[in-house]
Prior knowledge:
alpha+beta; 5-stranded antiparallel sheet; 48% helix
Amino acid sequence: MLRRLTPLLSRSCSVLKCSIYVTNSCSIRPLYKFQMDRIEKILLADDDIEKKIMALRSEVSDVEARIIDNILIERLEKENRELEEEIQKYRNELTQLELANGRRQIAFANILQQSKINEIISTKENAVEEKSKDSLAPQNVSKTDDAAYNVESKKVKKEQKKGDKPDKKKSDKSEVKKDGAEEPPVDVGRLDLRVGKIVHIEKHPDADSLYVEKVEIGRKEPITVVSGLVKHIPIEDMLNSLVVILANLKPAKMRGITSEGMVMCASSDGVVEVLRPPSESVPGDVVTCSGYINSPDAVLNPKKKVFETVAPDLKTDSEMIATYKGERWSVESKGFVKAQTLKGANIK
């Protein structure tokens, strides 16, 4: 019986050993993983702690530097106060010594006031001296000096008579300036800008880049305008179109043909566009600029350079409308003067 039970017992023991080993191995793996996760968390926390420590150290160093600066500032302010007190003390002692020696004390607000007072005193003294010399001069002269003095006095009288006579040339000029109206300010109001219609156009016979245009601007006869737009605007776009003309330029010859005005255009980076008035405009309509009085010169004087002064402030705005210093050009009750596509472009 025992012989039969022995092999059974040995088998059961081996089965038990295997089961114990399996259970032990299964329990160790999750425990190892758990421990590693904890270690990683501890390391991360350690890094965060170190960063916080470094930040705190920098803050502490900044606070210490501020405290030291404040301490130094307080010391300097204290030393300045002490120095000011010492200076005032020495000033008081100096004034007492000067008063004891008979020196008069004058309180000046500042050096500039002192210099002004000195100038006033010196001018008064000079005036007194001149008066005294004048009063003494005729009394202390000899006979020869007396004769010379008389001659000089006669000369002075003659000069005074001459001075009393009005200088015709000077007086005439001054009267012209006084009688004439004051010259208006140099702005866009000095330009005679008008709506014009090109009724005839052809190329200049002696210049390939120039047009010769006949433009109606409300006068009895069309004016002649020579413009260098051949390379920029087709001739068919110019004919019978409405444009803006600067009509008070001094007439000038361009390749043998006299030009009496200028077609106003916007230009930017080599692109040129003719400024167009409102479609309802008619030749002769005046183009004005809001905020500026329209008082054009009869003819712009080239020496005064009115247009050259105004031109840098002539531009198109973000809506392609012509402006002067941001104020828009318009034809009264009809609309604004515009370019076709150019924004922020110069006008000339």
